[in-house]
Amino acid sequence: MRTWAARGLSGSALALAIAVAPIGAQDSIYGGQERQFAGHWSDWPNSYSATTLRDTGQPLIPVFEGWYRNPDGSFGLNFGYFNMNFEESFYIPIGPDNFLEPAEYNGMQPTFFMRAPPRSREAEQRHYRHESVFAVNVPADFTGDLVWTLRYKGMTVKVPGRVQNDAYGIENLQATTSAPLAPAMRLEASGEEARGQIGPIIGPVRARVGTPLPLSAWVRPLTGEPHLVFWFSHQGPAEVVFSPQQGQVDGAGGEFATTATFSEPGEYMVRVTALQTLAALVQHCCFTNGYVKVSVTP
């Protein structure tokens, strides 16, 4: 499997590796520097440190994780993001400040960008980045760039997704790793199963502000081992509170139920991720993402 994940580092050394290794071949455009993608990480503005996670005031960085080939010959382009703040989140609605080009691929990217996870145990800092939060399928003859643009605080940040470079190739459903098979998932008791980075998608379902909405994911591991399940905010004007936010199903599979509580009305999408170990995200393979669209009224 081909991956550039940083391993075995800690502290500022790891933060530097995250800033250089996974996104070193990507381009950032700040403060009107309308520069073409040059195949390298551009300079940060003087007010930012590319190697430090802080409570507030640090950047939000879109990340192209890599591409994988689908059975029909098309490609999946996988994206995540790196919010370098422990306390500051971002809400950037889909539109002129948050879009994919070509426009026909617009719509699945997050609009609510969660904070960096709390400081974790030594050698677990690799999970600060929100990895592989959405993927987009492009046809087999796609040769251009699929560009994700974010604009915030007067800055413009872009990242190109491209399939021309084999170094960005990753796996989707199966690999020789510590988590070798993506599990099957469904989001309704009688719904269809799906696997991989573009798993089941349902909705919209209806909810009201302040009233917990029951949600479930039925996960069927294909390795016979227990699997972890996580619920996340993805789209919407405010962070969603899940209770519980994470849990586990045994090797035979089963239902993982939660409730989602919304603090503001609007259109939301929540994401559920199932995988055998967190190493699957670092290796960019063998996890399943499901998405639930939710329409929330006062």
β-sheet strand percentage: 35-45%
Structural class by secondary-structure content: mainly beta
Summed up, the helix count is 2
Number of discrete domains: 2
Q: Unreliable runs, pLDDT <50, ≥5 residues?
A: 1-50
The value of Rg in angstroms is 18 Å
Largest sheet: 5 strands, antiparallel
The global form is globular
Structural features, described:
The chain is mainly β. The protein folds into two domains: 11-168, no CATH class; 184-297, Immunoglobulins (Immunoglobulin-like), CATH 2.60.40. Helices cover 5% and strands 39% of the residues. The strands form five sheets. A five-stranded antiparallel beta sheet has the order 10-9-12-16-14, with no helix packed on it. It has a five-stranded mixed beta sheet with strand order 11-18-17-13-15, with no helix packed on it. The longest helix is centred in the N-terminal third of the chain and has 10 residues, at 11-20. Mean pLDDT is 83; it is low at 1-50.
Write the layout of secondary structure elements.
Blueprint: H1 11-20, E1 60-69, E2 75-83, E3 90-91, E4 98-101, E5 112-113, E6 130-138, E7 146-152, E8 155-161, E9 184-186, E10 194-195, E11 201-208, E12 213-220, E13 227-235, E14 241-243, E15 246-249, E16 254-261, E17 266-275, H2 279-282, E18 287-297
